Amino acid sequence: MSTISEVIIKDHRQLEQYYNKILASSDHDHQVRFGNQFTWELARHFVGEELVVFPAFEKYLDGKGHEMAEHDRSDHQLIKELLKSFQNMKPTDSNYVDRLQGLWAMLSQHIEDEEKNDLPALEDALTTVEKASSSIAKSFGRAKAFVPSRSHPIAGENPPFATAVGLLSAPIDRLTDIFRKFPD
C-alpha cells in the first residue's frame, strides 16, 4: 500500500520525465506526444490534489493546513494559466520551449516546496490515524480517473465551483483526447 506522499512524488517524477523528453528531442511528433502526456498528467494531478490532498491538509493540520492548502491553490492557479497557454502551442511555435521552461520553473519550485514541507507535515499528522495515508492515496488515484485532462483555470481555484466546472469539462477533454497524439 502506497502512502499519499509516495503517490504524489511518483507523479512529480513522471512529470519531470515527460518534461525532459520534450526538451531532449528535436522531433516535433515526439514533442507533441510528450507535450500532450505532460499536460494530461499535470491537469489530472492538480485537480486530484485539489479534491483530495488539500482537504486532507485542512482536516489533519488545522490552521496550518488551511494556510498550506490556500498557498498551494494559489500556486496551482498560476501554473494552470501557464499550462493553458502551453497546451495550445505546437513544437513549431518559436517560443514553445521557452514557454515550457517557464512553466517548469514555476512547477518545479512548487514541487520542491510540496515535497520538503507539505507532504512531510501531512504524513506526520497522519501517523496517528491508522491507514489514513494509504486511504487518501487511493482517493487521489480514483479522483484522477474522473477529472479533466486539460487545464481550465477559468474554473477557479476553490471548490465546489472549480469541482463542478472541472467535472463538466472532463467528458469533453476525454473526447478530444481521442484525437490527440500520446506516447506509445
From TrEMBL:
Gene3D superfamilies (alphabetical): nmb1532 protein domain like (1.20.120.520)
Pfam families: Hemerythrin
Span of domain Hemerythrin-like: 4-122
Signal peptide bounds: none
InterPro entries in the record: Hemerythrin-like
Protein name listed in UniProt: Hemerythrin-like domain-containing protein
Organism: Rhizodiscina lignyota
